[in-house]
Amino acid sequence: MSGRRLGAIVRLELLQRVRSVAWYVLLGVFAVLLLAVTGLTLLAVPAGSGTTGGAVYSIIVYFVLLLVVLVSPTFSGNAINGDRDAATLAPVQVTLATTGEIVLGKLVAAWITGLAFLAVAVPFVVIATIAGGVSVGTFFVSLLVLVVEIGVVAAIGVGLSGILARPLFSVAVTYLVVAALVVGTVIAFGLGTAAIRTEVETRSRYLEPVTQTLPTIPEECMTAAPGQTEPLPECMMPEEMPEPEYVCGPWTVSTHIMVRPDAVWWTLTPNPFVILADATPPSYDNGYPTDLFTNIRVAVRSAQLPPESAQDYDGCAQAEGQQYPTSEERIAGTTPSWFVGLAVQLLLAGLLLWRAWVRTDTPSRRLPPGTRIA
Predict the structure, then answer these.
(1) What letters, b where the CB count within 10 A reaches 16 and e where it falls short, cover 117-148?
(2) How far apart, in whole angstroms, are the C-alpha atoms of residue 357 and residue 351?
(3) 8 A C-beta contact, residue 200 and residue 307
């Protein structure tokens, strides 16, 4: 593989995009949307709450990720079959450029195209960082994850553009694959959680009031004597009423059905938003999340915990000040999953690129009917 030939293919791809007016229009719309979201987020999140910076930062970074996964398939989903349809792929194939250089060059060009949108978003991310409450580790890790996710989406689009013959169809399928990673994983998790259930036994007891005897009023107090203006001493109610007393009631046993998210939590691992949340360093305030990253991290990690087969609820102990574990303590023993999800994404992208290389290689043994060669 020649770096010079690879650079020539990347430069050719980028020049074709830069010359398009639509490219600059999309960048402008992207910047306007980020400006609006940044301003609205700063107004919506209460200032001085101690978590303003983290909340604003996580919302903006998630919005950038959402826009990138929506825009990237447009530039990568027709990278190979679009050139074939326009009869510009064959002249490149008859040069010294190999099939691997062509596929890799189009991948790098699509990746750089997506990174251009990230470059537009960097000033807004820096504004959110300056707002306070965001660590340097969170800043760099989240940007690194964004860069990798842009590359993954670009690889999926380029791979499908080499596998499928029609540009419009490959772009649509790229959007479907991205939607499956973003939305489909959440739907699979929800349906799997609802389908897998288990029976749990619960023992509980509560405080019950003790029956108390209230002071009785003598009969002569019911009617006032003629000329009597002040109540008799025995007719006056005591100044202090007795405090109500409670005792612990008996233990009761009941059974109920609980869902099992711990059996299907792994379906969320390839989700780009879950990967970003799980890879970013958490931020807590007194053991509770302070940004959107940590909230999603806690939700996904909590799904790993299986329900107890027998649960006890002691209302008496709770009344005495029973302490419950914080979110930070609850997920302390759970397992990170971002590297598993990222490995699944990279494996999918790698398989698609390999298949695209096989379909683009020349001479080709078989092409779909109607495929244009030159």
Answers:
(1) bbebbeebbebbbebebbeeebbebbbebbeb
(2) 10
(3) yes
% helix / strand / coil in the chain, to the nearest 5? Answer: 60, 10, 30
Q: Where are the domains of the chain?
A: 3-192+334-360
C-beta of residue 260 within 8 angstroms of C-beta of residue 303: no
Q: At what angle do helices 338-360 and 272-279 cross, to 10 degrees?
A: 140
Span 35-73, pLDDT tens digits: 888 788 777 766 555 455 577 788 888 888 888 888 888
Q: How far apart are CA 73 and CA 177, in angstroms?
A: 10
Give the model's confidence band at 148: pLDDT under 50 very low, under 70 low, under 90 confident, else very high. very high
pTM of the model: 0.77
Q: Specify the pLDDT at position 236.
A: 60
Mean pLDDT (the chain, rounded):
79
**Cα distance between the two ends of the chain:** 24
Closest CA to 107 of 279, 338, 360: 360
Helices vs. strands in the chain: H and E counts, helices first: 14, 7
Over the stretch 313-340, which tens digit does the pLDDT of each residue have? 777 765 445 566 777 777 877 888 889 9
Residue 300 · residue 265 · CB < 8 Å: yes
The letter for the amino acid at 352 is L
| CA pair distance 135, 282, nearest whole angstrom | 10
Spell out the long-range contacts of 135-140 with Cβ–Cβ below 8 A and sequence spacing 24 or more. Answer: 135/281, 135/283, 137/281, 138/54, 138/57, 138/280, 138/281, 138/283, 138/293, 139/57
104's tokens: 């890799």
Closest CA to 142 of 311, 323, 292, 305: 292
Query: Among candidates 254, 247, 248, 304, which has minimal Cα distance to 274?
Result: 304
